[in-house]
Amino acid sequence: MAKKRPQTKAKRPQLTDGQIPVVGAREPCPCGSGRRYKACHGRAAAHAATELVHRPFEGLPGECDWVALRELVPAATAGLTLKGGLPDGVPSVTLATVLPMAWPALRRDDGSVLLGLQNDTSSGDISRDLADTLQRALTADPGTPVQSRRAPADGPRLQDLLDPEGAFEPVVHSGFEFWVPDPENATADVTASLERANAAAIPTVKLSGVDSAYWCETPEKNHLRWVMPYAEEQLLDALARLHAAGGSSLGEGTRLVGSFRAHGLTVPVWDLPSGVGAEDVEKPAAEFAERLAPALASDAPLTADERRARGGLTNRQVTLS
Asked: Which of 14, 134, 221, 255 counts the most CB atoms within 10 A of its CB?
């Protein structure tokens, strides 16, 4: 009886990582390994989609203001400058804190693009999600919103699309009239939506004398929230030095009460009396910045009082992202 010849399987062509398409998690991996996609190349793709980027706006012009508009400011816009200029048919690209119906982006009838910042994102990299939304908005039909989706793990980030030399100058609005080109002639439904949004917005003003500091008014007291670009440990030490020396306030009745941690940056927060407006803290904030500079530069060990002050600041720190 003749022996059966051993059967050999034809070798599948080997694909590089960049050539492997995305398939269902339980399907065979297209690379030919014989394993399911989720246990092979899908593992790397899933990790890339969920890995948290702690400073997603790092490297962009105005990183501190990006953080403020994402987390602190209700109604604001800022023009964006693209690398290589605007595509044909797109007269402008504008970042907005919030868009109607929480749309990720909107291509207006005139072809201009509004990109929403305060939206839920599906990955751990806000910059990549926003870049994907922006790219789709640039090619969307005029007059249509862009819907959310999971951005490709290997897609570009905002840092790849925006001009690093472009200005980033936020404009804080008292309401959301920037949603529509002609709010006075808007339909009844749009007018009602605007009224609801405006009623919920906390009055906010960007200080002009220092960078990335925002005054806001609440029913009980006012606040100053100041996004700072310094390393967290260095900034907390500097704030502790000033606090222990009695130099952390912004004037009579004001108090440094703690800080937020947001997108890799630290945001000191001051309580202000209700009668203290944005214009009243312009000079005190500039004077505080002058006191902060040498405190940041000091590398002397903290004293006992400074360590206690630092512990109090750390205990009153809240993470927003």
From this structure: 134
pLDDT tens digit sequence for 233-259:
999 999 999 999 999 999 999 999 999
**How crowded is the C-beta side of 167, counted as CA atoms within 13 Å?**
6
Express each pLDDT in 158-205 by its tens digit.
999 999 999 999 999 999 999 988 877 777 877 888 888 899 899 999
Tokens describing residue 15 = 């694909």
* Angle CA 139–145–149, to nearest 5: 80
Look-up of token digits 């500039």: 286
151 CB neighbour count, 10 Å cutoff = 24
**Residue in 114, 108, 116, 111 with CA at minimum distance from that of residue 90:** 111
Q: Are 158 and 63 in contact (CB under 8 A)?
A: no
Are the C-beta atoms of 216 and 222 separated by less than 8 Å? yes
Q: What is the pTM of this model?
A: 0.84
Nearest to 189 by CA among 250, 111, 101: 101
The answer to whether 319 and 261 have CB atoms below 8 angstroms apart is yes
Taking the CA atoms of the chain, what radius of gyration do you get in angstroms? 25
Q: What token pair was written down for 103? A: 């749309």
Do 91 and 110 meet the contact criterion of CB atoms below 8 Å apart?
yes
Interatomic CA distance for residues 163 and 145, integer angstroms: 24
